[in-house]
Design a protein that fits this description.
The longest helix is centred in the N-terminal third of the chain and has 12 residues. Strand 5 and strand 6 form a beta hairpin. The protein is mainly beta and 114 residues long. The relative contact order is 0.19. The strands form two sheets. It has a seven-stranded antiparallel beta sheet, with no helix packed on it. It has a two-stranded antiparallel ribbon with strand order 2-3. It is globular, with a radius of gyration of 18 Å. It has one domain.
Length: 114
Amino acid sequence: MKKLLKSVFVSALFPTTPLFAIKGGTVDVPDPVTVGSTKIAPGQYKVSYEGSGPVVKVTVAKSSTPAVVFDAKLVPAHNITSAVLTGVNSVNVLQEIDLMNANLIVEPVQDPHQ
């Protein structure tokens, strides 16, 4: 009986993480993109975010390069695949990262002189 109670107590202290609580994933960046003044080269990146919204802190990391950290709007979603969406102009500017359980929308930086 004591072993059963210990097991229940340990389970209560360390519950398993439900699938919807996963805060990240992996994305392929097919073309160079810019976030603020930082350029992200093509490749596969690990994306994670902290917070529950509406604005979260996003980290995009690859083992061979420094991590890029920025703010984004969190929108819960149920995506089948992950994707990186960009606006096309003279430079590809990161607009959104779609993960399996969330869309991270990058708000454009406002020029204070406008």
